[in-house]
Amino acid sequence: MNRATTRLRALAALPFVLTLTTYLVLLALWDDRIPDTLATHFGGADGARADGFTGRTAFLALGAALILGLGTGWTVLVRRTVLWGAWATAGFAGTLLVLLVRDNLDAVDPAEVVSPLGNLALAAAVAAVLALVGWGLTRLVPEGDPAGPPATADGPRLTLGASEVAGWSRATASRPLTVLGVLALAAVPAGLLLAPWPGSLLALLGLVVGVPGLALARVRVTVDRRGVTVRPALVPRPRVRVPLDEVVGASVRELDTAAVLADFGGWGYRVRAHRTGVVLHSGETLVVQRDSGREFAVTVPDARTAAALLNTLAERHGKV
């Protein structure tokens, strides 16, 4: 992992470390004032009356787990251009948790607890301030990406007759993403069985993580006269396509774990300053150089055949 990536991830983790520390310190200070049951969901005509409740231990643990989960996700997936989002997320989630605990302090009957809608405005204000802080810290992270070996017009070729047409297609999968997607979706029904506040949040997180996780867990890569297409193996959408008229050249690169983290910042669908990619695992990778100067990469078996065919088709098209 290069120094810029390490610094970016440290800056993304920092607001969540500060938020978790503040949350735990306040819990310690308020320990004797926090009731055994907390009002954690509010509704009614004014949206401020308690109608959902959670035990003290479960709520405090879920609050800490929420901060840790959000922090881990942002730290692993963060990009330089959205560092501000990590700070805003930490500020918004942390402020809401603290205000919710504050509203429950010294409550004898949790059904009488009121959480004013102004809490949302205050949390949004804190998020906006911290977003500005995160945006300012972006300048501490150098622009650009470490450059790997470029894909060029000197890549492999596949011999085709003047009247021959050809296509190539392979599926590639990620077991970790499959497991993550299944576990996340399993959290949806589990969350619906819990109390409204933590349950709805858990179900929402399960959907947000599980659906795109399973969509990316197994993809099909196709090279034909239209260019390169990557789509989920079981459904036609969503898909990523590099049109043939944008292809300058294609080559093969071997990506190990260090290169995946350094060049793409992790696994999944990745967008970096000079490249995009669908990176499901380490190993053989098809790398496409586009006429814009950007690269598109996808990890897939038999990438050499795909690169050779793509170069031949692009050469026929007049780009190579």
TrEMBL record:
Keywords: Membrane, Transmembrane, Transmembrane helix. Coiled coil: none annotated. The chain crosses the membrane at residues 12-30, 58-77, 82-101, 113-137, 177-195, 201-221. This is DUF1648 domain-containing protein.
